[in-house]
Amino acid sequence: MTQLVTRFAPSPTGHLHLGHAFSALTVWRAAQEAAGRFVLRIEDIDRTRCKPEFEAAIYEDLRWLELDWETPVRRQSDHFADYAAALASLQEKGLVYRCFKTRKEILDEIARAPHLSPQGPEGPAYVGAPLPEIEEQALVDEGAAYAWRLSMAAAKDCLGEQWDALSFTEETPEGSRTMKATPEIFGDAVIARKDNGTSYHLASVHDDALQGVTHVIRGEDLYHAAHLHRLLQVLLGYPEPIYRHHRLLTDEKGRRLAKRDKAATLKAIRESGAEAGDVFARLGFSVS
Prior knowledge:
It contains 11 helices and 12 strands.
């Protein structure tokens, strides 16, 4: 029987709040109950918003909750070469293309023909196409900004009949379900940029495979990402994990907790004199 391996992968863009604590405890308890492995990963590819002090705060908060994890902790910003290699694999297969259009240009194009770009999980599902080689090279030589987009049409051609069979396993309290994967809901998803050699999607999929993650346990706000991630796993030859998407915590107005909610940060709760057991109880976890 395969050992369960799961992970908590926060981004150090602010202090952890109760919603993060709920996710971390959900993941950690799943590993404990299955006698499995709990991996902590720092997803800090956003070099503008991610700060060392917030990474240090993550460790402090999780230690206060008395969680333990394997070391060394993988910090994504240390491994851009790995993601470049994964992107190169997709490039060699002709599955990605450079898109030089600005966000405004894309929105203007969508406004002219909205029926061609239905709403997707990350906004309108934009579908483009590579430029002629001469035009593309001229823009590259000029130093123009661009995004690497995954061509859904090319992916579909590459996979053939396997495209229609794409699926992933979702575990719920009621049992496991096989879900048909429909990555086309993202349009031609951005998986890297000129000034940032990867995206959340590419880096997360790569690291889950590298770290042997068997169960991806995360918030239900990332449920749709599984559709795109399953496609990337197949295209890159990565193993298929099992997914669990847990509920999100909300405030009294029904809004999802966010890092702007300073009163709900673990730092603020700790400094108020609360103990870790108070957070466990508040979130519905027993203190072991």
